[in-house]
Amino acid sequence: MQALAGSDPSPALRLTLASASPRRRELLARLGVMADVITAADIDETPAKHELPRAYARRIAREKALALSADESHVLAGDTVVALGRRILPKAEDAQVARNCLELLSGRRHRVLSAIALKAPDGTLRERLSETVVRFKSLSASEVEAYLASGEWEGKAGGYAIQGSAEGLISWIAGSHSGVVGLPLFETRALLRSAGFAIA
Questions:
Q1: CA dist list (Å): 35 to 76, 110, 137, 170
Q2: Are 182 and 22 in contact (CB under 8 A)?
Q3: What pLDDT, on the 0 to 100 scale, is given for residue 72?
Q4: Residues 44, 71, 79, 122: which is the catalytic one?
Q5: How far does CA 154 lie from the centroid of its chain?
Q6: Active-site residue 79, yes or no?
Q7: S-S: 18 plus which of 4, 77, 136, 181, CB 3.0-4.6 Å?
C-alpha cells in the first residue's frame, strides 16, 4: 500500500489483516486493498458478564488489533455481532445452536454490529462501528431445516450468512450489507484513508 498524496511517501504503508476469514479478505479486496500479512488473532471472545452487544463488538475488535505485534505494519481487525435486543447471539458451532438462533430471529428484527479497529505502528488506535438492522421473514420449519442442511451457518454469528441462501429469507435490511457479511466497507475505507492509505 502507498501513502496518500501530500503525506510522507516513504516508507510504504504495510497492512496486516488480523483475520483468517476469507470473507473479510474478499471484502477488503473490493476497496483495492491487499493485506501484506494475514493472520488470525488468538484471543478469548467470551462476552463479559452483562456486556452489551455494541461494547462487546468494539472490545473484541480492539483486542484483536492489539493482540498482534507488527512493528512496521498497521493492523486491521474486525468483529461482527448479531444481537437480539441486549442479547448477544453465539457463533453457531453446531446445528442445534444454529436452529435456536434461526427460531429466535424468525419474523423479528435484529441488529448486526460490525466493529473495526486499526492499530498504527506507533500503537495509535482508530475505531469505527457499523450498525445494521435486519429482519427475517417468519420461517417455517421446512425453511429452517433446509437452511441447516446447507451448512452455510457453520461458524457464523447468529447462525446465518447473509451472503448465501439466507439472503432469500431476509425481508429487509437497513444499513451496511458488507457489515453484515463481516467488514463494513464504508467505515473501513474511511479508517484506512484517515491513516494515510491510498484508496480511491
A1: 9, 32, 37, 32
A2: no
A3: 85
A4: 79
A5: 16
A6: yes
A7: 77
Tracing cell 491487499 back to the chain, one arrives at 34
Cα dist from 93 to 39, 98, 145, 146, whole Å: 21, 8, 16, 17
What was the pLDDT predicted at 126? 96
- 89 neighbors 83 (Cβ within 8 angstroms): yes
The closest alpha carbon to 116, from 105, 124, 128, belongs to: 128
What is the pLDDT, as a whole number, of residue 10?
37
Could you give the CA distance from residue 62 to residue 191 in angstroms, rounded to a whole number?
14
Q: How far is the CA of 142 from the CAs of 50, 74, 100, in angstroms?
A: 35, 46, 14
Q: Residue ranges of the chain with pLDDT lower than 50?
A: 1-10
- State the pLDDT at residue 11: 55
Q: What angle is formed at CA 9 by the lines to CA 5 and CA 15, rounded to 5 degrees?
A: 100
| Domains with residue ranges and CATH for the chain | 15-194 (3.90.950.10)
User: For residue 146, what is its C-alpha cell?
Assistant: 433446509
Burial call 92-119: b when 16+ CB within 10 Å, e when fewer = beeeebbbebbebbeeeebbbbbbbbbb
